[in-house]
Every structure is written in structure tokens, then in C-alpha cells.
Design goal:
The protein has a six-stranded parallel beta sheet. Strand 9 and strand 10 form a beta hairpin. By secondary structure, the chain is of the alpha/beta class. Helix 4 packs across helix 6. It is built from eleven helices and eleven strands. The N and C termini lie far apart (about 45 Å). Helix content is about 40%, strand content about 20%. It is globular. The structure holds magnesium ion (MG) (3 copies). The site of one magnesium ion has 6 residues, from loops.
């Protein structure tokens, strides 16, 4: 019997999904559990690649589906529509996550650690401390990178005291200047030039479901919103194609300025009213500027979801 435990984050993996799964594998191996294996459900983005290059590590193996009965450990997500194909028939033994719990069920008991923190790696860091586990430099940099990514260097409103404390302690172990390293890492992720519009709208897209109405909120980080908006027309064609192909009622493309902490959205579909009501703003040219908004999880999704 194959006892291998596959550890993975969500589709369109971000730095938290990749780094958290890698840390969980490393810690298990440090402790003699050799059955754990981090894998990924999509391409490595440029921000995460910066981290892997910095550490000289290879990306986890890509998988597309799991077989019935496969033992899995989910990090940084729980919703089945953001998870691997075949998840319904997998055996979920563990979840560590910092998102809402939705579209999720298991037939057997499991370990589930959910905390409303800014990052999955912060929860992992706390667990490791409680267990008295040794954290090495590589593990510290992986977790620090995940926290920097998810909290935009502690500037996102999703940031908690726990994230700040964890990042400070991890930076000490890693012996890095968090601001310098963090800004370089975040900037690496804003290089969008060689992506097609179709790739751009799928880079960090979350599939969501409100009573059977399917919608997507996608996000890209940039240092110049204007630069991305130069491609608005082509972006809109790509979005409209996706809406049609996947039967979506709404697609929100969020362009987030990581230096000034603002977001411009492009919203298309039959339910853009949910977006207009959420932010009490009329879309102009399918767009709206949302001052101070950077977090999909805390500032975009709940409001849009509520206004459906
Ligand atoms: Mg994530
Ligand atoms: Mg996360
Ligand atoms: Mg994210």
C-alpha cells in the first residue's frame, strides 16, 4: 500500500502555497517521517522562483490529479474547487489554512488547523514552536518569504500580530534584512511583460461559487497600475472569452500596486452589479479604483460575495 502523503497548496500556487508545503515536507523529514512529499498544482510564479533561486532549491513536482484513496495534506486552501482534481475521493488527513472554510467535507476525522492569520506559514511556525522543533535557515527563509508575500511585507490589512512576530523571529534565524529581501522578492513577482493576456488573467485566479453562480477574482501585483492598463483591451478580450467558456457570471481582475497599496479592478460579466454595490461605485470603462485595497481575501471577496 502506498502510504505517501502528498502535501500541496491551491491551484495557481502562490509563494505561501509552495513554501508552506515545502516546509511541511522538510520538517517531516527532519523528524524521520519519509512519507511526506510536497507537490504543486500549477506553475511557479516569478516571485516564488526568486525564493527558490535564492535558496538553490528545485520546485516541487507538478501533479494534475490524485487517485482515489490518495493520502493528502492541504495547506493554504480547503475549498475543493481550488484543489487538485480528484480531491473528493482522496483521504484528507490534515489541513493547515488561513482562509474561510467552504466547499469542503471529509468522510473521516482529520487534523485541521485554521487560524485567521495573514499567512499559512505563520500557523506552521507557531505549530513548530509549540512542538519545540528546530527550524533551520532554509525553512526560515521559506516561511519568511510566504509571510512577506501574503502580507505584502506586513502592509496588507490581513496582517496580524502573529505574522509580525513570526516574521521577526524567522528573519533572525535566516539572518536576512526583511525589507531589502522582501522588496526584491515582491518586485520579482511584478515583472509581467512576457505574459500573454490569457496568462495574466490566470496567474493568480481564484475560482469561487455563490449558490451555483460561478465567479473568479484574479489578482496581479505591480509597481505601475498604468503599465498593466495599457493592455486593458486585450485583457478584456481574454476575460470575456473565459467568461463564455467557463460559464462565469463575473470576472474581477485586480491590479494591485504593491508600493502604494491601492488596487484598480477590471470587472466583466452579467453580475458586475455585485461589484458596484460592494464598493458603492459605478464602474467606468469597466474599471474602478479602490484606494487602500490590496487584499482579495479581506477586502474584495467578502464584500463581493455579500452583494451577490
Ligand atoms: Mg495562497
Ligand atoms: Mg496564504
Ligand atoms: Mg495571495
Amino acid at each position: 500500500m502506498n502510504e505517501e502523503v502528498l502535501i500541496f497548496g491551491h491551484k495557481n500556487p502562490d509563494t505561501d502555497s509552495i513554501c508552506s508545503s515545502m516546509v511541511c515536507e522538510m520538517i517531516d523529514k527532519d523528524n524521520g517521517k519519509n512519507f511526506s512529499k510536497a507537490v504543486r498544482l500549477g506553475n511557479i510564479n516569478k516571485e516564488t522562483q526568486y525564493v527558490l533561486d535564492y535558496l538553490g532549491l528545485d520546485a516541487p513536482e507538478l501533479i494534475e490529479k490524485v487517485e482515489e484513496g490518495q493520502i493528502v495534506f492541504l495547506v493554504d486552501h480547503n475549498e475543493f474547487n481550488q484543489s487538485v482534481d480528484g480531491i473528493e475521493k482522496a483521504k484528507i488527513v490534515s489541513v493547515i489554512d488561513h482562509h474561510r472554510i467552504a466547499n469542503f467535507e471529509t468522510s473521516e476525522p482529520l487534523c485541521y488547523n485554521a487560524k485567521p492569520y495573514g499567512c499559512t506559514s505563520t500557523i506552521i511556525f507557531e505549530e513548530l514552536k509549540q512542538l519545540g522543533c528546530e527550524i533551520n535557515r532554509t525553512e526560515a527563509i521559506l516561511m519568511a518569504s510566504a509571510i512577506i508575500s501574503d502580507t505584502l511585507l506586513l502592509k496588507s490589512p490581513t496582517t496580524t500580530e502573529y505574522d509580525k512576530k513570526a516574521l521577526a523571529e524567522l528573519a533572525k534565524i535566516a539572518n536576512i534584512d526583511v525589507n531589502q529581501y522582501g522588496l526584491e522578492m515582491l518586485k520579482a513577482g511584478t515583472d509581467l511583460d512576457d505574459f500573454s493576456e490569457e496568462q495574466l488573467i490566470n496567474l493568480d485566479a481564484k475560482n469561487l461559487d455563490k449558490n451555483g453562480e460561478k465567479f473568479v477574482i484574479a489578482q496581479v501585483n505591480t509597481v505601475s497600475i498604468e503599465d498593466v492598463l495599457k493592455r486593458q483591451q486585450q485583457l478584456e478580450s481574454a476575460i470575456n472569452k473565459k467568461i463564455e467558456n467557463e460559464g462565469l457570471c463575473l470576472f474581477v481582475f485586480a491590479i494591485t500596486d504593491i508600493l502604494n497599496s491601492n488596487t484598480e479592478i477590471i470587472a466583466l460579466g452579467s453580475r458586475t452589479d455585485a461589484v458596484e454595490n460592494a464598493f458603492n461605485k459605478k464602474l467606468e470603462n469597466n474599471r474602478a479604483f479602490l484606494e487602500g485595497v490590496v487584499s482579495r481575501k479581506k477586502q474584495l471577496l467578502p464584500l463581493i460575495d455579500k452583494n451577490f
